[in-house]
């Protein structure tokens, strides 16, 4: 009997924080809807829904990958540059030829995967702090993009541009693909050893190592997958612009992605969280942006509000986390000191 | 027929930074035996266990497991050879479930993917083998009691097929009912033929549980006896042994014991309870007790790091509320912490910056006159450095400690708490500190001294307050025997007129 009960107990404990985030999303939708309604608008009009969903896909790809590295207690600040580079690789490889689309996708995944691998090696083998290592990678990419690509380059065939624009009812294809990638990531974290071990690596590196986990490989895998997600984001950029754009990095997508991951309840210190929460975090940001857009709030106030929401959310998580640490036995300290 | 024992360690030696911690220690454990490893703080028990677990490697000696010579360079090698260890600090991930923790790094797979059902079932099997069916495999480790976390670690060890389970002070953080559970569990292990190395200094548990006892003292083997061949009193004597009298400076002439400067009544918080303590001007009061008995917790409560939540503190007769270190410093309390490098010093700053730190950071004690005294203080402590600009991380342990002491004396405190002031410092610096402590008392400070080395407390303190399990177990005059102190500290004797 007890064994029958346990899977239910498992899902209820792991879901509780995820459920909380989706409740927060529902709350944001209700409040946003009400705010828009007082101005005489309808947040749930088709045009607004399309706007909302369209906003989720790009940040979504980046945030899913970012979740993996943050779970490992790492970080990737280069994803915006990787996405920009990927859009160029995609557009110049396709060069208007439909037949070269598969080749372009392969090239993007290869290039982005290699950059992620380099990030992973910097962090694990060279022991460079991930913040600095990926910032450095980002700057190197920026330098390359700035000198090699003064303007848009390449040509994306119309067929591939559909990835950027086609919708099923009010849901863009890109959002569907993003959700599929999210589902794959959830499955990966839960059902593969490498994915499962990401929680251990981020939770406590020593415990992971003492349990026989090859921590370096796990971290490198997270960085490779994160960069490949950025590559997919770059494909989407190419599809939307119809060309490769180096300028894309100026939008600081990496910060949106980190904000979404943190909003989604993944601990910046690693070891706790997941992709389901990240998707909700992405959605919350998208809803906020749409609401600000519909209400025509000026850009400055918009950024202030976004920042305030993110800080408030993280402050709430921090409080929950404090209670948790206070309950840890104190004897660990004493043991360590001797 | 002589069958080789499960484990035979012979002639084990180990030194840290040139200081010998173990020399020529032997330890043999038979199959299915519960073997106690006992000794005072610093006797080398934990080091020996860590060598066995592959955390440290021995400098000398051999280890044989099942008759085969082994040498563990990494904890994983020990685990694969069948030696599992449960340390005081647990190796669990709080965000993962019991079954995920038990199988971490060895998750069962089906078609290449993690088989969670098998993981849960196998964990439930191990747990029911251990007689703890009520512990759910899907509970998060971080939500469990300390006892259940410990059981999770034991389950992890067993699921790896361990033949020998080493436990370091397993009852140190358990409540009485939980200790019973651990007893039953060890009984089960014995039935299954698993050997247990039980590191402890709790006399009662050793006699309840163990078949044989190995006694260490000062890093050397004293004896290995069957539990039936020794009485508790004899065991304590063996642990304490006879020591070469250390030379402690005498009480300085002119030292007068005056009014009570620090008075605690009914002090308690999450870790300690019912603490009644008086320290008079000119008096050195020693706090003795085993690791985890609450010595450091009293120091931290008096200094406001983890304040008392119950009871009162009076300084020089007036009630004070110490809610944090700044309050304590302002009220004239100083604390030399036990962890010099992490808590006592800014390692990459200069001698001068460190010595000024307390004055610079606290306006209530800052004054030009006190700043001017610092160079004199440092030289009176015989500090050896390449000048006041040298970064303290380049100083020896003893000289680092002198800087810590100087930074506190600069604030001219009325009460000074010294937590393990001589840990990890050389003999010369130790003796210098001993005479500094004596002179502080002569100047009328109230001194509260915490030391794991019993001989220090006995040699320096005017009175010794002995703690056990977070409460005061008894009080002894200075110069009491180690046996008397240990009797209180191990809980075999409790205060006749014990505080409520």
Automatic annotation (TrEMBL), chain A:
Name under which the protein is recorded: ABC transporter permease
Cellular-component GO terms for this entry: plasma membrane
InterPro entries according to UniProt: ABC_transp_permease
Domain of life: Bacteria
Compartments, record wording: Cell membrane
PANTHER family: ABC TRANSPORTER PERMEASE PROTEIN YPHD-RELATED, ABC TRANSPORTER PERMEASE PROTEIN YPHD-RELATED-RELATED
Keywords for the protein's UniProt record, in alphabetical order: Cell inner membrane, Cell membrane, Membrane, Transmembrane, Transmembrane helix, Transport
Organism: Glycomyces buryatensis
GO molecular function terms noted in the UniProt entry: transmembrane transporter activity
From TrEMBL, chain B:
Entry's localization field: Cell membrane
PROSITE patterns per UniProt: ABC_TRANSPORTER_1 (PS00211), ABC_TRANSPORTER_2 (PS50893)
A GO CC annotation given for this chain: plasma membrane
Membrane topology note: Peripheral membrane protein
Domain of life the protein comes from: Bacteria
ABC transporter domain boundaries: 7-243, 255-494
GO MF term list: ATP binding; ATP hydrolysis activity
Listed Gene3D superfamilies: P-loop containing nucleotide triphosphate hydrolases (3.40.50.300)
InterPro entries referenced in this protein's UniProt entry, alphabetically: AAA+_ATPase (IPR003593), ABC_carbohydrate_import_ATPase (IPR050107), ABC_transporter-like_ATP-bd (IPR003439), ABC_transporter-like_CS (IPR017871), P-loop_NTPase (IPR027417)
SMART domains hit by this protein: AAA
One Pfam family this sequence matches: ABC_tran
Chain ranges passing through the membrane: none
UniProt KW keywords: ATP-binding, Cell membrane, Membrane, Nucleotide-binding, Repeat, Translocase, Transport
Protein known as: Sugar ABC transporter ATP-binding protein
């Amino acid at each position: 009997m007890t064994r029958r009960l346990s899977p239910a107990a498992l899902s209820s404990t792991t879901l509780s924080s995820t459920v909380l985030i989706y409740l927060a999303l529902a709350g944001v939708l209700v409040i946003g809807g009400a705010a828009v309604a007082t101005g005489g608008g309808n947040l749930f009009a088709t045009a607004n829904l399309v706007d909302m969903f369209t906003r989720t896909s790009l940040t979504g790809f980046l945030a899913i990958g970012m979740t993996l590295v943050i779970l490992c207690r790492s970080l990737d600040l280069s994803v915006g540059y990787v996405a920009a580079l990927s859009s160029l690789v995609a557009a110049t490889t396709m060069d208007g030829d439909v037949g070269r689309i598969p080749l372009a996708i392969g090239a993007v995944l290869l290039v982005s995967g290699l950059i992620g691998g380099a990030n992973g090696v910097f962090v694990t083998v060279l022991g460079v702090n991930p913040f600095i290592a990926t910032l450095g990678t980002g700057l190197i990419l920026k330098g390359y993009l700035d000198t090699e690509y003064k303007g848009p380059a390449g040509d994306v065939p119309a067929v591939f541009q559909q990835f950027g624009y086609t919708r099923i009812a009010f849901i863009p294809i890109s959002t569907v693909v993003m959700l599929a990638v999210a589902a794959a990531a959830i499955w990966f974290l839960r059902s593969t050893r490498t994915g499962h071990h990401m929680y251990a690596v981020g939770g406590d590196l020593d415990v992971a190592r003492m349990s026989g986990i090859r921590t370096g490989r796990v971290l490198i895998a997270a960085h490779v997958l994160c960069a490949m997600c950025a590559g997919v984001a770059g494909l989407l950029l190419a599809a939307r612009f119809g060309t490769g754009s180096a300028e894309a990095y100026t939008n600081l997508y990496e910060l949106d992605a980190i904000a979404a991951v943190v909003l989604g309840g993944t601990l910046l210190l690693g070891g706790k969280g997941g992709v389901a929460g990240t998707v909700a975090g992405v959605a919350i940001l998208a809803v906020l942006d749409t609401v600000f857009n519909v209400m025509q709030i000026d850009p400055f106030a918009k950024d202030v509000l976004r920042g305030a929401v993110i800080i408030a959310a993280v402050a709430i998580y921090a409080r929950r986390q404090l209670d948790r640490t206070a309950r840890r036995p104190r004897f660990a300290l004493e043991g360590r000191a001797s | 027929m002589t069958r080789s024992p499960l484990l035979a360690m012979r002639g084990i030696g180990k030194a840290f930074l040139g200081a010998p911690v173990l020399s020529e220690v032997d330890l043999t454990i038979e199959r299915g035996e519960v073997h106690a490893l006992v000794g005072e703080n610093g006797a080398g028990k934990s080091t020996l266990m860590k060598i066995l677990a592959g955390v440290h490697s021995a400098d000398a000696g051999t280890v044989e497991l099942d008759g085969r010579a082994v040498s563990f360079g990494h904890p994983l090698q020990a685990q694969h050879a069948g030696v599992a260890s449960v340390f005081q600090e647990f190796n669990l991930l709080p965000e993962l479930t019991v079954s995920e923790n038990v199988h971490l790094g060895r998750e069962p797979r089906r078609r290449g993917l993690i088989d969670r059902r098998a993981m849960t079932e196998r964990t439930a099997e191990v747990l029911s083998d251990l007689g703890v069916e009520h512990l759910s495999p899907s509970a998060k480790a971080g939500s469990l009691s300390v006892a259940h976390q410990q059981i999770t670690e034991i389950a992890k060890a067993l699921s790896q097929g361990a033949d020998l389970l080493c436990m370091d002070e397993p009852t140190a953080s358990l409540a009485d009912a939980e200790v019973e559970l651990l007893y039953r569990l060890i009984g089960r292990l014995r039935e299954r033929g698993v050997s247990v190395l039980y590191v402890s200094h709790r006399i009662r548990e050793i006699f309840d549980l163990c078949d044989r006892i190995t006694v260490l003292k000062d890093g050397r083997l004293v004896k290995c006896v069957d539990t039936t061949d020794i009485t508790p009193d004899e065991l304590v004597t063996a642990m304490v042994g006879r020591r070469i009298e250390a030379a402690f400076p005498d009480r300085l002439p002119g030292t007068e014991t005056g009014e009570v400067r620090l008075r605690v009544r009914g002090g308690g918080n999450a870790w300690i309870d019912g603490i009644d303590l008086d320290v008079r001007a000119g008096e050195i009061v020693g706090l003795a007790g085993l690791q985890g008995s609450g010595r450091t917790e009293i120091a931290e409560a008096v200094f406001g790091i983890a304040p008392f939540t119950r009871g009162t503190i009076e300084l020089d007769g007036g009630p004070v509320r110490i809610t944090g270190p700044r309050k304590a410093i302002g009220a004239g309390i100083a604390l030399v912490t036990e962890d010099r490098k992490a808590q006592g010093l800014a390692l990459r700053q200069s001698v001068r910056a460190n010595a000024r730190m307390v004055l610079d950071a606290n306006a209530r004690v800052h004054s030009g006159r006190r700043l001017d005294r610092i160079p004199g203080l440092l030289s009176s402590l015989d500090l050896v450095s390449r000048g006041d600009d040298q970064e303290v991380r380049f100083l020896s342990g003893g000289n680092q400690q002198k800087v810590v002491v100087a930074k506190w004396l600069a604030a001219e405190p009325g009460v000074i708490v010294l937590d393990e002031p001589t840990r990890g410092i050389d003999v010369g610096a130790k003796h210098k500190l001993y005479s500094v402590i004596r002179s502080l008392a002569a100047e009328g400070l109230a001194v509260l001294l915490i030391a794991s080395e019993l001989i220090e407390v006995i040699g320096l303190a005017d009175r010794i307050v002995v703690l056990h399990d977070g409460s005061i177990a008894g009080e002894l005059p200075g110069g009491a025997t180690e046996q008397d102190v240990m009797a209180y500290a191990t809980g075999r004797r409790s205060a006749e007129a014990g505080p409520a």
